[in-house]
Amino acid sequence: MSQPSTLGARIKAIRRVAGMGQDALAQALGFSTRSLISWERDVVEPPLGVVRQLCRDHEVDVGWLVFGTDTTPARHHGPADWPRYERLLAMIEALRVDVGLRLKPGRCQVLARSLYDEGDDADADTRRRLRHMLLALSQGD
């Protein structure tokens, strides 16, 4: 089983994806190459301002950078489309009731967030797949 990545490994991944050397990234961040090396090696953690700048300049998700478990940069999704999320949540809730499935509190929100993150919209194919999945879950009780 592979080990989870570290903050330093994720900083290094950002630098490599950007095609930058340590000197170039350090200069862009306003720090010494020695500081960058110490962050990449997890000797010390970078200042919060550096984390913000990395996320902003390289369009990576702050959650991935700080808490990620792999070294594939997750892109920042931008501002949330709350009306779309609410439509997905309402669709899931209606389908849940339709198939007679009882879920623990918060599970519909998890499903809605998953669909939201995947970019699936409330089209007929998504409804059909979700209904089949909820039916399968309801029969497992």
Automatic annotation (TrEMBL):
UniProt cross-references to Pfam families, sorted A to Z: HTH_31 (PF13560)
InterPro entries, per the entry: Cro/C1-type_HTH (IPR001387), Lambda_DNA-bd_dom_sf (IPR010982)
SMART domains given in the database record: HTH_XRE
PROSITE patterns with a match to the protein in the record: HTH_CROC1
UniProt-listed Gene3D superfamilies: lambda repressor-like DNA-binding domains
Alphabetized UniProt keyword annotations: Plasmid
Domain HTH cro/C1-type: 11-65
CDD domains named in the record: HTH_XRE
The protein's name in its UniProt record: Helix-turn-helix transcriptional regulator
